[in-house]
Specification:
With 584 residues, this protein is of the alpha+beta class. It folds into three domains: 365 residues, no CATH class; 104 residues, no CATH class; 57 residues, no CATH class. 34% of the residues lie in helices and 17% in strands. The protein contains 18 helices and 21 strands. Strands 1, 3, 4, 11, 16, 17, 20 and 21 form an eight-stranded mixed sheet that branches. α7 packs across α8 and α11 crosses α13. The radius of gyration is 25 Å and the shape is globular. The protein starts with 6 loop residues before the first helix and ends with a helix.
């Protein structure tokens, strides 16, 4: 067995050693200066400052409409230099390649276990809590490809990084936010502030990213003598309207689109004249109704799955446990469908969802309870495409975003990604993690064991940490140390002590600011078979710096268009003027 020195070991031994001296956030416009504008923003900030408060409000209101009510656009773009953008692209591609190599290994020989890269008990609990433990016999390792968009921040200036340091906060695979917005964000900002276009109109066109994706999907489809199809949710059952923008993008690039709807259990309203996908022993087929005559039957070679991956075939056996538990949580979530159960039944169901001493939930008991106590359930729905996973396994079709790989977005798994880069690629990370550690002691198979030293370290210095629930989404289960109250600290202490394996701690890193907001960047990409396609422009979110410290559009957040600028000419001009001034 080979021995590897893991970066995560150092974190666990002494997390406090990795905390930098807090230097305050980096300002995207002025950097570390209070007065001097960074080259990337020269001319840009003057345009923004010339906008009246009323004009800025009007832009936000108008762009909210253009995004179908999903979010407003910040009137000031986030401007990156060519060099910064390249770093984000290369770092994303590198991280994606390592994740893909891990997935191929995980569903193959599991060499990473033999070499001690991730302890077996750690990967087991990560996979199990993401309900993906049954996919091993259905995944073809060599055919894994997926959308990937890490969330990246620019931290404070530190020694060696005077412009702040880009760091990955979280990994987001498969069904991610942002792919539908890159084109619209650029279009909207140039429409409402045409002066930006005069200055930054040569920023890369995000349409090229989708051109590359669509061309690649058609190429993959043609290898199986078929067409490329996008599968998406009906817009009015989605959490926002981004899916419609994704549909439009790929329709314009010659792809077929098939819409799925939960409310029609017999698979996509098939009694109506709408497109649908079916499978048989010969392959996968698009059934395309015609105005006159019988429907066309067209072979499908590649599917872009823009659903939560497992929904592509909800009734598949490997999905069953996840589906039942998702249904159960829907019934007790006050934001969702909890009205289907009375308070007493909700309390009972919550109790049934508590893991036993071995960490397991009796799923059969949960299913039986749901069936007995409510008629409003999805347990018998045949949402998705029956037989598609079997077709995928047999190589009858290829797919972007198949089920079985979402667990790599788990926040505990994140701790090991730098080690995967070193192990599989033999490279140094281009964009590093934020130092992070689980509250759970390693090697305690089947037990919940609190790492007491980590617990004391974090809660004695809570203002220098962020605590996260490992499977939290959309800002839920996140406590930003400097923003936490004493009552919140007391609450999260109890949560961590009760279930330490479900929480991690990250060193608090001040996010860069832009026009009174803090924000992050998501670099969107496709990690494909032998090829990574990375967008030349990023997707960005911002929230008020006076908020709770969590960057989340659903919490009064905004989107920011990201534009890329070559500052070489600006710097040359500035240096020439400075030289002229000195000569005078």
């Amino acid at each position: 067995m080979k021995c590897y020195k893991l970066a995560t070991v150092a974190v666990i031994i002494s997390l406090s050693c990795l905390i930098s001296v807090y230097a305050g956030p980096f300002d995207e416009v002025t950097g570390v200066s209070d007065t001097q504008v960074r080259p990337a923003y020269q001319g840009v900030i003057e345009i923004y400052n010339s906008l009246s408060s009323q004009k800025k409000r009007q832009i936000e209101q108008a762009t909210s409409v253009e995004f179908a009510g999903d979010n407003p656009l910040l009137p000031l773009p986030k401007v990156l230099t060519v060099e910064e953008s390249k770093q984000l692209q290369l770092g994303t591609a590198q991280r994606g390649r390592a994740l893909q190599a891990f997935l191929q290994d995980h569903y193959g020989n599991k060499e990473y276990l033999k070499d001690g890269i991730i302890p077996e008990d750690v990967i087991t609990r990560i996979v199990e809590r993401n309900n993906e433990s049954m996919w091993a016999k259905y995944i073809r390792p060599a055919h894994i490809q997926f959308w990937y968009g890490p969330d990246i921040i620019r931290g404070p200036p530190t020694e060696g990084f005077p412009e702040g340091r880009f760091m990955v906060v979280e990994d987001n695979p498969t069904f991610i936010g942002g792919p539908g917005d890159l084109i619209q964000a650029r279009k909207s900002i140039f429409k409402h502030v045409p002066e930006y276009k005069k200055l930054l109109g040569d920023s890369p066109d995000p349409g090229r990213f989708y051109d590359q994706l669509a061309d690649n999907y058609k190429f993959l489809a043609k290898q199986r003598d078929g067409v490329a199809v996008l599968v998406a949710y009906a817009s009015d059952i989605s959490s926002d309207n981004e899916g419609m923008r994704v549909e439009k993008i790929f329709k314009e690039r010659g792809m077929e689109v098939v819409i799925m709807d939960y409310r029609h259990p017999k698979n996509n309203r098939h009694k109506k004249k709408v497109k649908r996908i079916v499978t048989d022993k010969d392959g996968v087929w698009l059934i395309k109704p015609q105005r006159k005559g019988p429907a066309k039957r067209i072979k499908v070679g590649h599917i872009l799955n823009n659903l939560s991956p497992a929904d592509i075939e909800m009734k598949h056996p490997a999905n069953r446990q996840a589906f039942i538990l998702e249904e159960a949580h829907w019934h007790i979530d006050p934001k969702e469908g909890s009205g289907a159960l009375n308070p007493k039944a909700q309390k009972k169901l919550k109790a049934l969802l508590q893991p036993d001493k071995t960490g397991n939930i009796n799923v059969k008991t949960v299913e039986s309870f749901i069936r007995r106590n409510t008629k409003q359930h999805w347990l018998d729905y045949k949402f998705g495409i029956p037989g598609i996973i079997n077709a995928l396994k047999k190589g009858k079709v290829s797919m972007t975003n198949p089920p079985g790989i979402e667990f790599i977005g788990d926040k505990e798994f994140y701790i090991y990604v730098e080690d995967l880069i070193a192990y599989y690629l033999k490279e140094t990370p281009i964009i590093s993690n934020i130092p992070s550690v689980s509250f759970r002691t390693r090697g305690q198979v089947g037990k919940t064991s609190l790492n007491l030293s980590t617990f004391k370290e974090v809660f004695n210095k809570i203002k220098t940490y962020v605590i996260k629930k490992v499977d939290g989404r959309g800002g839920d289960g996140v406590w930003v140390g400097p923003k936490t109250t004493a009552a919140e600290v007391a609450k999260v202490k109890k949560l961590v002590m009760a279930n330490p394996g479900h929480y991690i701690a990250q060193v608090f890193t001040a996010l860069s600011t832009l026009a009174g907001h803090i924000g992050d960047i998501r670099q969107i990409s496709e990690i494909g078979i032998g090829r990574q396609i990375v967008a030349e422009t990023s997707w960005a979110r911002v929230v008020s710096k006076n908020g709770n410290g969590k960057v989340n559009i659903s919490d009064q957040g905004k989107e920011a268009v990201v534009l890329v600028r070559n500052v070489t000419n600006i710097l040359s001009c500035t240096n020439s003027l400075n030289g002229f001034a000195r000569a005078m």
